[in-house]
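WARN no homologs supplied; continuing
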Amino acid sequence: MKNKFDLVIKNACLKNQAAEKYNIGIDNGKIVAITKENLGHSLQEIDAQNNLVTESYVNPHLHLDKVFTLDRLDELAMAQYHQNEMTGAANAIELASRVKTQYDQSWITENVRLALEWAAINGNTHIRAFADIDNKAKLKGVKVLLELKEEFKDIVELQIVAFPQDGVVKEPGADILVNEAMVMGADVVGGIPWIELTDDDALSHIKSMFEIASKFDVPVSMLVDDVGDSKLRTLEMLANITIAKSWEGRVLAHHARAMSLYPDKYHSELVEILKKAKVGIVTDPHTGPLHVRVQDLLEQGVLVCLGQDDISDAYYPYGHNNMLEVAFLASHLLWMTTKADMNVLYDMITVNAAKAMGLQDYGISVGNTASLVILDVPNVVEALRFHRHPRYVVHKGKVIVEDGEIL
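OK structure emitted
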């Protein structure tokens, strides 16, 4: 008898439908059936055993070229970044940049490969990966990420960000290198305007990067106001230029930690600008003592998602590309501890993050690409409680991980 499906997942609990059990049929990389009925013959069958099956995890913020570099530095940058309400964040970036004088594609490749393997094991199938571009790093990180993007294309999908970490105005030639990175095949134009020395320079930084984004017709991801200074306004600059350039829905603002210090009136005004610009916010509350007002932004209709940010680098000693762990930590740091809160946190590492990255045909729906995780617990609360790796990870319709082993 002819097989109707390449893969059937039976006895699956879907998010917010714990009382019902479903069978999911997958064929040619797509979800083609979600039903309570028996789906019949398939080439492969997995019994979810009445446990949770959801979309795979999405990480919209990871400094992938710098993973596992903490041992190459001291802890001075981390101290500057984490102490005194983050007033030393700019100094932290200068201290952290020392590692780039040691950049070598061989060890960067080894580190990145391990991080991507961990991502797959933890069900993290999509990553927006930042690569530093400046006069120290040159294009070494970008070259490695481009090579491994191809190597891992059927396991973890990368969106590579050409990221001028040390500035544009204060780092002459960085804009030229960003342009070169886009020619090489990077997917997203990055930026960090708050690192510039004046507001005018910050504005020039943003405009310069938007010119490149417009030239290559790509999204923009910028780290904004990542320091304990309530006077910083680069998020507002970014949102206004997004509107002026008609780039609505294609821009992410990362960190924006100074939002936590803004006067309420200005915060409310800024939220309206963000909504008009359709700028999404990526927050990483576990990597620094300040963070955006997540609940307020969500209630106002701003797209907010979570990112891993760092893995054992100058800013953060932990991390292993486990987005459930990121959500678990956020639950504590944001005091989001009701069941409704936990469902929101889960969305922030799945559907919200996917929307932020512009992913198409993502999600547990018929017709979408079959990228999903099969857990060993029945619901979101238990998924966050234990934050273990999935039993199975399916990507593009194929089982890529079983019991913590990449197939």
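The chain has two domains: 5-55+362-406, 57-356.
OK
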